[in-house]
Structure formats: C-alpha cells, structure tokens
Protein 1
Amino acid sequence: MLKDLDAMAVLPAKDISRAREFYRDKLGLEPVQEMGPENLIYKSGNSTFLLYQTDNAGTAKNTQMGWVTQDFDREVEELRSRGVVFEEYDQPGLKTENGVATMEDVGKGAWFLDSEGNILNISSI
C-alpha cells in the first residue's frame, strides 16, 4: 500500500507568483508542471512537492519541508549568496549560532522562511 508509493510535500502560498519567484531566485527551482494558475509542482532530487495558492499560508509553526545534504556548509553558503536568511533559535534542545544548529548525534541544521512564511530546513546527517 502506501509504503510502496512516493510521497509529495504540499506547501501553501498566499501569492503564487511571489512564491514562484522565491523558489526560482533563492532556491534555484523551476516548476516541472503547472496545474492551472494556482498550482505548481516542483522536483527536487527524487522528491516532488506541490505549491498551491491559499489564504492559509504561513500559519504553521513547524518545519514543513526539508532537504538533506552531504555538503551542508557549501549549501548554506550558496543559499546565503542568493539572499536566504536563516532563522535564529534559542530554546531547549535547539540553539543556533549564525543560523546553524549543531545537534549531537544528528548533524547540522538550518531553518529559513520562504516568501509565504513556510518554515523550510536544510540539514546534514
């Protein structure tokens, strides 16, 4: 059943045009398919995600999608060079320095907001 199927992340966008520009200019991603004027499908590695227009965008307080990389520092620097700003956290179990958390037995992680307020993550393992 589901264990044999690919999963797709679904992210909301209040302004699909603004979101499309963010994903293109900041993350280097272009839609692989458009489903009407308010639904964009992206491919990243072997994964896909849908970006769809809704007024509910930006209301989640949790990480909604993330990428895993073998070269964390290079990816973070590339994102910064494109204007991505990483969030700072100081809470039990998670403290960032210059936008990066180093987590024992897990690796590094950094979180940023897209143009619609969705929390995205990049991490190493």
Protein 2
Amino acid sequence: MEDVRFLVVDDAIFMRTVLKKMLTDANFTVVGEAGNGLQAIEMAQQLQPDIVTLDITMPEMDGIQAIDRILEVSPNTKIIMCSAMGQHSKVVEAIKKGAKDFIVKPFEKTRVLQAIYNVMNR
C-alpha cells in the first residue's frame, strides 16, 4: 500500500502514543497529532492527511463536532473514530456524519489495521 499519512487525535497522550507506535510499526507515516477537535481541524487543513484517527470524547471540541469541519478543510481525508466501549450511539452518529470506520479502545492491532484497509479500499 502506498505511503498513507495519518493525523492521530486523542486527548490522552498515552492513547496517541500507543496508536502512533502501531501505525509506525506497520510502516505508516504519522504526520501530526492533536489533543482536541479544534487542533484536529487546524492540523487537517494544514497537513491534508489521508486518514484521521479521531477520538470521540475530548475537551474544547469533541470528535463528533469536528467531523464536518475536518471534511470541509480536508475533503479527501478518511476518518476512523476511536471510541470507548459503550459509545455505540456516538459511533453511529459519527458514521452518519461521514466517518468511515471505528476502532474500540483499548486498541487491538489487527482491528486497527483492518479499519485502515477498509477505509483505504473504499
């Protein structure tokens, strides 16, 4: 697969670190990271990543609120939502707004890679 560029968005530094390691171990490129939806929009506009992994629950602006704006400033970007268990209704809302897939915390590498291949092959 060609070099896929990622923006990793999560308010928890630990979760960003775990996900970045999974991505770089799979030979993907992480071009940036953000801790909330406002930063994610700004970075998506600047970096034009192929995929944004977007946490649902964050301060200042959550992932659901950020979806429309990210797709507005970076229309070719695919969004994979990151959710905790029990956030099914939020994931459904995110998919309706334009997210292409979701992964559940704690992250399982096989599921993360499956979600990436799913969105890149659409």
Protein 3
Amino acid sequence: MQTTYRYPVGTNGKPWGEPERKAWLEQTAIKREYQEEVVPKIKALGDRFDIEQYGALSYDEARFPLFCLKSKNWDSNKPTVLITGGVHGYETSGVHGAIKFMDTMAEHYQEHFNVVAAPCVSPWGYETINRWNPNAVDPNRSFYQDSPSEESASLMKLVATLDNVLVHFDLHETTDTDETEFRPALAARNGIEYVPCSIPDGFYTVGDSENPQPEFQAAIIESVANVTHIAPADEKGNLIDSPMVQHGVIHYPMVKLGLCGGVTSCTYGTTTEVYPDSPKVTDEECNDAQVAAVKGGLDYVIRHL
C-alpha cells in the first residue's frame, strides 16, 4: 500500500541534496547526554576490564569519544566475542544492555573467550535519539571500504585489530518510531514513495543469510523468551516484510547490505531486535533481554566448542 505521506524535509520524489540534509540536521536536538548516561557506566568498569578509546567523532571529539571494554589478560589462544551496541544510537537497550552484560556476566565467560564490547558506536545518534548520523547517513548500512560514516569506519578499524572473532552480537531495537519517523525520512532522503510496514510485537533476531546458524539463533530465542515475548509473524508470515525462517528469526545478507553484523568473519553472529514500545516490558527488561540474548548464544557456542 502506498501513501501520500509528506515528510517535512525535501520534495516528494526528489532525493535530498546538501540543502535538504542541512535542513534535516537543523531540526534535530539534543535530548540526552552520552557523557552523563553512558561514559560513566563504561568507566565504572575500568577496574575489571581494559578501557580503550578506539576513536572520536569529528562532530565534537571531546563530547563523542568512542570506547570499548576488553578482557584483561587478553589471551590470543582464546576465541574472541564481540558485542556492539548503539550502532543506531536511538536504540537504547543496545547500549545499556551491552554495558549490563559486561557488568554482570562477561567475567563468567572469560574462561572460554576474550570479550570486547563497543557499547555505543553512535553517540551523536544516542544524544539526538536518531537512526542516522549528522550527515543523514545510516551507520548500519555503511560497513564497507571507504565508509561515509565515521561511526562505522572507526568500528571497522577496531575490529581489524581483533584476532579470531568467533562470535558477534550486534544489539538493536525495532521501535514504533521506525515507522513514524525513520522509514519516512529514509524514503524522503532517497526520493522514493514511503510504503508503510508493520512493527513486530516482540523480540526477534536477524541472522546472516550467507551463514544463518539456525541452532545458534534458536538458543538465543529460547533464552530471551524467559525475559520477554518473542515476535510472532504477521499474516503474511513475515517480520518487517522479511520471511520468518524459524521462530523469531529472519535473515539479511549482512555484508551485501553493509550491516554491522557483517563486520567480522565470525562463525556465529546475530543481530538482536528488542521491542521497547510494548506495554508488556520495562526499560530494564529490555536491557535484560539483550543480556539474555548474549548469554543464550554464548552458552550454545560453549557446548559446541
């Protein structure tokens, strides 16, 4: 179904140029502060993990340093687990769920793995509660050579320093604002018609269509089901217009689409999608769902090492 929806920036059917991107940026606003809500939580873990600054965003390098947490006593003989959050900065539980996992569970898994977490890949997006960066570029479609996204390029440089990444969890959310703001903005930016899509009611994962690992995905779904409800398919058997290939799971070609889920050559990878707008969940339960996803996935991998 098409719509005559008119996004407030740009002209219907005409891709944005620099004036439209500037107009879009001017209507964004700071709604919360990375240095108050995220950085102190990362630094509080400095006695238990190594904190590494792997970059800073040129929009304001002092305001937006990029941090990761890494296992102390790094052992090159162990496989590595990578956890990324906040690639889309507005997806809050991705950020705080990554930090909560490091705080509450990461040390338990260091017997088997080196663990590294980049909890907030897109701090400008976190502050403005936005999917894009200030240049109207989506970091989670920009993981490729000569990336137009500083956020993506910085994370790729970090990943290039990591040995033997066996498992990657990229923590995301699907929100009601995906449909009320971000997908309409995308259509306007690209000069195409906005076609509405339904938002799944519950948690799901996105596996790599080139390396789906269905049993790994199932273990994540089973673990998260103890915390929050799993999204059912719509009347077409889809989640966000993609076929549900198993309970709570869809597939995307990660590398082809430039997604963060394709940033490593890991054996086991997943993109989690929490639904924070459900009246059935609290913010903390959303964080707990992200933790449960990582736990369920790692427990599965340990059983199959």
Protein 4
Amino acid sequence: MADVPFVDAHIHLWDVQRIRYPWLTPPFADDGPNGSVAAIARDFTVAEYRAQAARWNMVGAVHVEAGADPAQALDETRWLEAVADAEQLPTAIVAFAALDDPQVEQVLAAQAAQPRVRGIRQIVNWHSDARRSYQPRDLTRSAAWQAGFAMLKRHRLSFDLQCYPGQMPALAALIARHAEVPVIINHLGMPVLADPHGREEWRAGLRALAALPNTAIKLSGLGFVARDWTDALVRPLLAEAIDLFGPARCLIASDTPTDTLFAPFDRCLGVLADATAAFSRDERRAMWGRNAERLYRLGLGARLDIAVETRSTSCPTL
C-alpha cells in the first residue's frame, strides 16, 4: 500500500450498451491519435477500476468525460451520478459541453445542476497534421468558443484543457482574461516530439500557461507522448512540468483505461511515483491528492490526512 492517499485526477468509465461512444465503435484504425482502441472498446466499470488501483491507496477519483456522442453528454453525466450513488465512485465529474454551441448557456446550466459536476472538458487538440487532430479546425480561435469559455465562471465550473503545445500561447492570453476559471491541463500538455521543434514548443507553451495562477497540470497520458514510451523518455518531461508548475499545481492521474492501451496501470503509476519520490511528504500529498481535492472541490477532508502505516515491500511507495 502506498504511503500517501491517492486521488486519481483523471479516469474514464463507460457502458457501451447504455451510451454511444463513436471512438469506441468499430471499425477501428491504427492511424488516429490513440491508435486502435479495440482493446478497450468494452464496458469499463468501477469494480475493474478498483482492481487496477488496488495497490495505490486510492481514496477518490475524478471522472472526465469519455467521448460520448455529444447528444448523450447529459445522459453520461446522469449515468455517472447513479454509478457514484451506488459505488461511491467517481468522487467528482468533469462533464462535456461544446463551448461553441449556440445553446451552451443551457448546456452548462444543465451539467452544473448535477451534484458531482465540477468542470467541463471539450477536447480541442488541433494540429496541422490531420492524423493528429481531434477537431477539423482550431475551435479555440473562434469568438463563439471563447464566449462559451467565459460562461464557465457563471456556473462555477473549471475547464480541463486538452490541446497541443502550438495552441497554448493563444490560449494563455484567453485564460489570463478569465482568471476566475481554474484550468487543468490534461496529459502533460501532450508534447508532439515528432515535430521539428516539438520539445521546445511544448516547453514554451507550458511556460506561458504556468505563468498564470489559475492553471494546473495533470501528470498523465504518457502514451500520448509516445505509444512505446520508456521511463528514460518521460522522466525529463515530468521533471520539467513539475518544475514549471510546482508541486502545488500538479495532479497525478492514471487516464485509465485509455492509457492502458500503451502500458499497464501499475507501470504508469510507478513512473509517476519514481518522478515524485524525492519531494517532501507534504509535496507528495499535494500532488497525489490534495491538489485534486482543492481544484475539484471533492470534500474528502480527513481521508486525505490519514497517515498509512502499513508497508509491503511488494507495493509502491510514494
């Protein structure tokens, strides 16, 4: 058992019979951003998640919208609320809303009315290479999308930002204008190391975002750095991200089951444990749980302050 409580800041659950997920629907191809997702195109339940996380002193988890058909976004949230009522997970929900939707005000109001909804995610990754893009154009440049982003404050919603580094400088200017909206960068900022200046662009983009006090970053999504990632590849990136944002603004997350396409759950969490091992106990408590507690308003309270005394040489130490 790990020695600090763990709040997983980014998980997905799905019931493919109840909700339609276009990206989990055949036919599958290997040339998209995730590669083939056939291996995870089945129900993923709380019981399966608990089994994966069994070695990590998990006390809570944040569910992030899982790419449901936009017409079923509210259905996904309501299903998750029912799951949480029965299973005590997820602890909080980051729901979907298309911020450029003409009806976005009503959509945000409906999502925010659900008890566990704390934020919104709309994946906005755009790249000049269409094989990398999740969107046909850079939505974040549109006046409609930016107006929708501004509405998040009214509903006390954070925003989970999944973008590419090339989009970050312009997004930093927008985020700076809306300092009351917490923005949590997904998956280490998704560096595109194959680009000619990919690492430098990622570093510059993160530096621009990290300069804003209302931003934080999830240490997750290592398979998006490279499907065949190694510790030697990702450890310097993790160190840079922590250095830029500081332990008070970094959140540990598994991105399961998506990231299990690339490596087992324990391997993903293991490299994050190694990357944070040299920090003080309070700093590790922050990265592994307290930051998620604060940003997503989880209400876990004393569960994050319990010191775990049990040790096992076969279990990870955070």
